[in-house]
Task: structure prediction
Amino acid sequence: MKTVEEVIFVGGSMRSGTTLVQRLLSAAPGASPMSAECQYMTALVGLYETWRSRYDQFLGDFFPDADSFEAFSKNLVDQFVDVIRSRLPAASTLVLKNPELTYDFPLLSRWYTQAKFVVMMRDPRDTIASMMAVARGHRVAKTPSMLANMADNVERLADVYKSYYTAVIAAYPQFGSRLAFVRYEDLVAAPDRVLAELGRFTGLTLNIETLRSVPDNEREFWDRRQESKYSKAFDSPLWTAALSPSAIGRYAERLSPAQIRKIESSCADVGRQFGYW
Result:
């Protein structure tokens, strides 16, 4: 059986281009095909993150020590990855994506010392404008969600945006050469250069032509998404189309000047660090 280490984790803020990169990586020879977000793995890892702080109070009677509890928790994730591998025997590399899993990338990098991590970045202004569009879709469909509750509160959405990157940036040195930040704007503006860099990083052979049409093995995946009101509100026509810079700078049409100023103030550190202003 292949090891759990042969995994590429894809993360970053919601609406930052994580699905686009997942499509590119999953279309490469030897990679696992396009799949749903690995929310169940996120829940398993989150369960450990939640309960390790409660070890002394609630778990000390059941495990010899905290290290044993961590090993037990990691084994649960290992077993889930083994289940995925058994379903995809032809895949030499798993591509697993979920924006919320980004919070746990530092822990996963310690658990899986050969795994690689791709973190998508996108202009906070465009990202938050896109979050607001999803929130409106959820409200129209009367679908409860975190975004629907936040509505057009750009300050709260800015906090959500930054939260995806806080732990990864703080733990950056521990990743060594196994972490790559990819800016959405660079990917759509200079795809050949970015894909060459991403291919060297992941070891996969990437081809921009794979985005020009939906492969047969992806059609079922996209059809399933249309059956969920929650998932459908996240859909973007750019996911299943050739790369286009049309979404860059769209915030200027979607946000008021006051909203833009609030985002630029709230996300000043990230915006400067990744060259957005």
Summary: The CA atoms of residues 65 and 91 lie 36 Å apart. The domain at 7-273 is CATH 3.40.50.300 (Rossmann fold).
